[in-house]
Design brief:
There is one protein chain. This protein is mainly alpha-helical and 472 residues long. It has two domains: 175 residues, no CATH class; 286 residues, no CATH class. Helix content is 72%, strand content 0%. Helix 1 packs antiparallel against helix 2 and helix 3 packs antiparallel against helix 4. The relative contact order is 0.11.
C-alpha cells in the first residue's frame, strides 16, 4: 500500500487514526493496524515478519539475561546475527549467488542450477538491519531487551517506517513505546511533513520518473549527449525526491501517532565532498554502517591504508544491501573509492577549492554514480556513460527536450532542483512559518492545504509508482 495512493489516503489512514485515538493510543491497536498495512501488500509474507519478531524478541531476552557472561552473550549474539543474515540472504540474494555459481558451472561444462521462485518481502533489508542493531545494542549494554512482546513487535512494525525506513534504533523508540503524547501542534507538524513528502513524491519524483524511465529504456544509438544527460539528471532528482519524500511522509505519519523518528536527509546535493554527501544522504543507513561495521573494523584509527580498506569493505556491503546486482556493488565501490581518495592528499586539496567547484565536484561524482545505480546492467551503464561523453553525437537540445520532457516536466524539474538546496527551501519555510501574528500560521495552513489539493489532483491524473526504495 503506497502512502501516495488513494486507498491509503482516503481509506486506511482515516480508519487508522480513528481507531488509534479511540483506543487512546493503544500499542496493541497500532500493532494490529501496522500488520494489516504490511499484509495488504504481502498477505503471505507477513508470516516472515511475525517470525522475525518472535525470533529477535527471544534472542534479545537471552542476550540480556546473560549480560554478565561474556562468552555466552557473544555466542547468542552470533546466532541471532546469523539467523537474520540467513533470512535476508535466502530471500534477497539466493538467485544472485545461483547466477554466480552457474557462471562457474558453465565454464566447467556442467549443468546449471535452476533459480528459486522466491518472492522478496517488502522492506526486508530495512527490518533486518533494525533487528541486528537491536541485538547488538543489547550486547553492548547500550540498552536492555524489551520485556513486552507487543512493544517489541510495534518497534519492528510501526507502519510509517516499516517498508523503507528511516532505520530506527530501539533506543530511539523505547521510551516512546510506553510514554508519548500527541497534542495539536505536534499533529499539525506531522500533517505538514506528510503533505510536503506527498508533494515531493507525486509532483516531482513521479513526473521526472517518466522522463528517466523513457531515456534509460532507449537503445544505445539513441543515447546522444543531451538525451543521456537529461535522463541521468532526471533520475538524480527523481531518486532524491522519491526517497526524501517517503522519509518526510514516514516522519509526518509518526508525528501524527505521537512518535518522533530520526531525520534521514539534509540537502545532500548541497554537500561539499562525498564524505559530506553521505552525512546528508540516507543518514540512518550511513549511521548504521558507521556504528555497526566501520568503527568495529577500526574506522580511521589504524592508519590510512586500513582506513581505505575499511571504507571499501563498508561501501561494497552498502551497495550489496541495496540489491543483488553487480550494478549496486559497483556503485558502492565507486563511492568507497572517492571516500578513500578524500582521506588522502586529494581531500586537503579539495578543501582549498572554491565552494562552487566543490559543489560541482560532488554533483558530478554523485550523478555519474546514479548512472550505474539506475542502469539494469553494467553494460547498460557503460552505454549510458558513452552517451554522456558524446560518443553517439550531440543531438539538438530543443528536439531532445521536446521528445522526452514536456513543459510540465521541465517546470517541476526546475522546482525540484531549486528545492534541493537549503537556501531556497529554508527561505520558503521561513516566509510562511512562525511569527507573532495570525497571518503566517494561516499562510502555512493555506500553503499546506493547496499543496495537498494539487497533489491529490496529480494522483488522480497519473499512474501510481512505487517508491524506489520499496524494492530494497
Amino acid at each position: 500500500m503506497l502512502f501516495s495512493s488513494a486507498v491509503f489516503l482516503f481509506f486506511f489512514l482515516p480508519i487508522c487514526l480513528s481507531a488509534y485515538y479511540l483506543s487512546r493510543g493503544s500499542n496493541l491497536v497500532l500493532l494490529a493496524l501496522s500488520l494489516l498495512f504490511y499484509a495488504w501488500g504481502e498477505p503471505i509474507l507477513v508470516t516472515v515478519m511475525i517470525g522475525t519478531i518472535i525470533v529477535n524478541f527471544f534472542m534479545g531476552r537471552l542476550i540480556d539475561e546473560n549480560r554478565h557472561l561474556p562468552a555466552r552473550r557473544k555466542f547468542i549474539l552470533g546466532v541471532g546475527i546469523a539467523l537474520n543474515l540467513i533470512l535476508l540472504g535466502s530471500f534477497k540474494y539466493a538467485n544472485f549467488f545461483i547466477a554466480i555459481a552457474n557462471a562457474v558451472l558453465a565454464r566447467l561444462g556442467m549443468a546449471p542450477v535452476s533459480n528459486l521462485d522466491i518472492p522478496l518481502p517488502l522492506g526486508i533489508s530495512f527490518f533486518t538491519f533494525q533487528s541486528m542493531s537491536y541485538l547488538i545494542d543489547i550486547y553492548r549494554h547500550d540498552s536492555h531487551a524489551e520485556k513486552r512482546i507487543v512493544n517489541f513487535a510495534l518497534f519492528k512494525t510501526l507502519f510509517p517506517q516499516l517498508i523503507a525506513g528511516p532505520i530506527v534504533r530501539y533506543t530511539e523508540l523505547a521510551r516512546q513505546l510506553t510514554t508519548r503524547k500527541v497534542d495539536l501542534p505536534l499533529f499539525a507538524e506531522g500533517v505538514e511533513r506528510f503533505v510536503i513528502g506527498l508533494a515531493q513524491k507525486v509532483l516531482v519524483a513521479d513526473v521526472l520518473a517518466v522522463t528517466a524511465d523513457a531515456i534509460f529504456a532507449l537503445p544505445s544509438p539513441a543515447l546522444s549527449f543531451v538525451v543521456s544527460w537529461t535522463g541521468v539528471v532526471a533520475f538524480a532528482l527523481q531518486i532524491y525526491f522519491d526517497f526524501s519524500g517517503y522519509s518526510n511522509m514516514a516522519i509526518g505519519l509518526s508525528l501524527m501517532l505521537g512518535f518522533r523518528l530520526p531525520e534521514n536527509f539534509n540537502y545532500p546535493y548541497a554537500a561539499l565532498s562525498i564524505q559530506d554527501f553521505w552525512r546528508r544522504w540516507h543518514m540512518t543507513l550511513s549511521r548504521w554502517f558507521r556504528d555497526y561495521l566501520y568503527i568495529p573494523l577500526g574506522g580511521n584509527q589504524k592508519g590510512p591504508v586500513r582506513t581505505g580498506i575499511n571504507l571499501v569493505v563498508v561501501f561494497f556491503l552498502c551497495g550489496l544491501w541495496h540489491g543483488a546486482n553487480t550494478t549496486f556493488i559497483v556503485w558502492g565501490l565507486y563511492h568507497g573509492l572517492f571516500l578513500t581518495l578524500e582521506r588522502s592528499r586529494f581531500g586537503g586539496w579539495l578543501a582549498r577549492w572554491p565552494l562552487t567547484l566543490r559543489h560541482a565536484y560532488v554533483l558530478m561524482v554523485v550523478v555519474i554514480g546514479w548512472t550505474v545505480f539506475r542502469a539494469p546492467t553494467l553494460a547498460g551503464a557503460i552505454e549510458m556513460g558513452r552517451g554522456m561523453l558524446g560518443y553517439n553525437g550531440f543531438s539538438n537540445a530543443d528536439f531532445a527536450l521536446r521528445q522526452f520532457a514536456d513543459s510540465r516536466t521541465l517546470l517541476f524539474a526546475l522546482i525540484g532542483a531549486m528545492f534541493s538546496f537549503p537556501a531556497i527551501g529554508e527561505r520558503a519555510r521561513a516566509a510562511i512559518s512562525g511569527g507573532d501574528g495570525t497571518l503566517r500560521p494561516l499562510a502555512k495552513a493555506l500553503c499546506v492545504g493547496a499543496l495537498f489539493v494539487v497533489s491529490i489532483a496529480f494522483i488522480g491524473a497519473q499512474t501510481h509508482r512505487a517508491f524506489i526504495y520499496f524494492r530494497f
